[in-house]
Every structure is written in structure tokens, then in C-alpha cells.
Design goal:
- By secondary structure, the chain is of the alpha+beta class.
- Among the domains are: 78-197, Frizzled cysteine-rich domain; 247-357, OB fold (Dihydrolipoamide Acetyltransferase, E2P) (Beta Barrel).
- It is 28% helix and 15% strand.
- The protein has 9 helices and 10 strands.
- The strands form 3 sheets. Strands 5-6-7-9-8 form a 5-stranded mixed beta barrel.
- The longest helix is centred in the last third of the chain and has 25 residues, at 340-364.
């Protein structure tokens, strides 16, 4: 009896022989056998919880955040992944995290959702729109900063909204509730990102490449790669989808302008890549006056799609930004080398398009 006693005066009964069943009488698996030399960690764990319970809630949160910061980088960075959304590859970050701020679990889902804004981006309604959308759909994921993806600043959202909502209202759409600016943090009161707040630590700035580092034969049309000290062509790393020039495409896309033009130069610098062209013939225009002289076409992203080669003559189909009197090129625009029969084709297609529009208007009348 004395050998069975412990400090608390309790008598430990002799252990029962192991059951042949994997479950004991309670329906639960038997506990694993403990060595008599193994110390039970429960008293220390219970003491830890009792100490935390006595601390103020704010201090508990601080302690937990500090504990998370001590996790190994490999653990914290496990959910960061390379940005694969085509529209966001020009952003000054290359790692993102899912789910994003719109609750898309994968980038494949995010691609399908962000594509609905391609037309709005093509209008050039706000220089902040693409940055804001990418910060929401492909949020920056930093290994050494915080566990959750970083949100865009409220001011970035408000600038994008003020520039683009009037355009959306013209087509009976309003700013999406999912992009509500009031839910985003202020720059001076929380953690958020904005274009003007991004400062390069080392290496070239992807928005303003240092062309002096390029070789003498390079030009402003072939800026330095943002990930190295090598120069690249204007469309390196980009893959433009082929848009077929036919009646079906013309009717579906309903381009604002169609011109015949010779390309003088293509500039891929800063936030607004452009193509300078000499207009030879205006086959169609809608909202912007297009004189037969040198014009600037504005690309919607740093991927110059459709691609244009200086010195070549093209038929170009795209969209217009009436408020800023700009001719726009987006991924669904068409640029094909000029052939004489193309002008006649477009005029025939435009007659068909006008007929369809008239028929639709008549059907819509009460």
C-alpha cells in the first residue's frame, strides 16, 4: 500500500489488462501509455491560460501578434504565390495571396472576375483604376511583414471611383458594392498601399526604368527589365491574344474608331505606354475628333497589345475616351497590316452594325 502512495495521499489502483477491443467502455480509444518519468504538461498549460485570462484583451492580442512574428519565414510565406493574373503583371509586386479581398480562393477565379473591368480600363477613366483593382484581386503578399494580405488605401479607391463611376453610370452601372471605399483603411491610420507610397529599396523602378543602364543600342521603346539590369523589348514577357478581324468580331466589339495609320514610334515608359501614329484615313469615329495628322494612342497596360511595329502601316480599331479626348488600345483592339480591301470591308460591316442598332431600337419601343 505504501509503495502505491504519492504526495497527495491517493492510492493508485493496479492497471487493468488491455482490452482486446480498440475502444474501451466509453467508446473512445484508450489513452496512450505514459512513462512514469514523463512530466504531465497540463499544469503548466493551465497556468499559462490563467495568466492570459488575467491580462487586458489588448495586451493579449499584442502578445499573440508578437508570437506569430516569431514563426519561421518558411511557415509565414507558405501561402504567398507568384502573380499570374495577366492584368496585374505590370504591378510593382510579384507575389500575392489567396483568398483575396474579394474572397476568391484561387487566381483562376480572380482572373474571371477582374476581366469584367477590361472595358472600363480601356476608357482610361482613372490612372489609379488598374492599381486599385490589382490590390484587391491580387493583393501584395510580403514574406516579412504581416500574415494577411495588404489592402489598398481608401484614397486610391476614391480616386478610381470618382474618375470611373461617371463612365459606368452612362451605361446604367454603378460602382460595385464589393469595392466599397469606406471599408478600406486611411493611409495615416492603418496599413495600406498606394502608388505614391511605393519606394524602391534596391534595383530599378518598374514604373520609371533607368534607361542609362541599358546598352547603347537600346532605346526608350526597349526599357530595362524591372527584375534585372538587362534591356528588353517592349513586349517581353507578354502574350497578346489574337483577335480575328471579321464581321462577327466587329459586331461584337463595336469599336469607337477605325483608322488607317503609319506607326512612328512606340513608347513603353511609366504608367502610360503609348503609340505615336500618323493618321492616313479615318474610316470611323464616334466621340473624339480624329484629324489626319499625328495622333497618340494610349495602351491600357504595359503589355503592348495589340503589338505595333514602327514604320509599318496598319488598320487599327479601338475605343475612345470622350472626357480626355483619347484614342485607346486595349487587348480586344485590332491592329493588322494595311491592305487596300480592308477599308471597303469596314464600311460594309459598319452598315450591318448600323442596321442591327436600328432594329434593336425599334424592338425596344413600346
Amino acid at each position: 500500500r505504501d509503495r502505491g502512495r504519492r504526495g497527495g495521499g491517493r492510492v493508485h489502483k493496479k492497471a487493468a489488462p488491455p482490452s482486446t477491443s480498440p475502444l474501451d467502455g466509453t467508446g473512445r480509444p484508450p489513452p496512450p501509455h505514459k512513462s512514469t518519468n514523463q512530466q504531465d504538461p497540463r499544469p503548466e498549460r493551465d497556468l499559462t491560460f490563467r495568466v492570459l485570462a488575467m491580462l487586458p484583451p489588448a495586451l493579449c492580442v499584442t502578445l499573440l501578434a508578437a508570437a506569430c512574428a516569431l514563426w519561421p519565414p518558411a511557415v509565414r510565406a507558405a501561402s504567398c504565390e507568384p502573380v499570374r493574373i495577366p492584368l496585374c503583371r505590370s504591378m510593382p509586386w510579384n507575389m500575392t495571396k489567396m483568398p483575396n479581398h474579394l474572397h476568391h480562393s484561387t487566381q483562376d477565379n480572380a482572373v474571371l472576375a477582374i476581366e469584367q473591368f477590361e472595358g472600363l480600363l480601356g476608357t482610361g477613366c482613372s490612372p489609379d483604376l488598374l492599381f486599385f483593382l490589382c490590390a484587391m484581386y491580387a493583393p501584395i503578399c510580403t514574406i516579412d511583414f504581416q500574415h494577411e494580405p495588404i489592402k489598398p488605401c481608401k484614397a486610391v479607391c476614391e480616386r478610381a471611383k470618382s474618375g470611373c463611376e461617371p463612365v459606368m453610370k452612362r451605361y446604367n452601372h454603378s460602382w460595385p458594392d464589393s469595392l466599397d471605399c469606406s471599408e478600406l483603411p486611411l493611409y495615416d491610420r492603418g496599413v495600406c498601399i498606394s502608388p505614391e507610397a511605393i519606394v524602391k529599396a534596391e534595383g530599378p523602378d518598374p514604373y520609371n526604368p533607368d534607361l542609362s543602364r541599358c546598352t547603347p543600342e537600346s532605346s526608350p521603346d526597349s526599357p530595362m527589365d524591372s527584375n534585372s539590369f538587362h534591356c528588353r523589348g517592349p513586349n517581353a514577357g507578354c502574350k497578346c491574344k489574337t483577335v480575328k478581324m471579321n464581321l462577327k468580331t466587329y459586331l461584337r466589339n463595336n469599336y469607337n474608331y477605325v483608322i488607317r495609320a503609319r506607326v512612328r514610334e512606340v513608347r513603353n515608359r511609366g504608367l502610360e505606354p503609348t503609340a505615336v501614329v500618323e493618321v492616313k484615313e479615318v474610316l470611323k469615329s464616334s466621340l473624339v475628333n480624329i484629324p489626319k495628322e499625328t495622333q497618340t494612342l494610349y495602351y491600357s497596360s504595359s503589355c503592348l497589345c495589340p503589338p505595333l511595329a514602327p514604320g509599318e502601316e496598319y488598320i487599327i480599331m479601338g475605343y475612345e475616351n470622350e472626357e480626355r479626348s483619347r484614342l485607346l488600345l486595349i487587348e480586344s483592339s485590332i491592329a493588322q497590316k494595311w491592305k487596300d480591301k480592308m477599308g471597303r470591308k469596314v464600311k460594309r460591316w459598319d452598315v450591318v452594325l448600323q442596321g442591327k442598332s436600328t432594329t434593336a431600337m425599334r424592338r425596344g419601343r413600346p
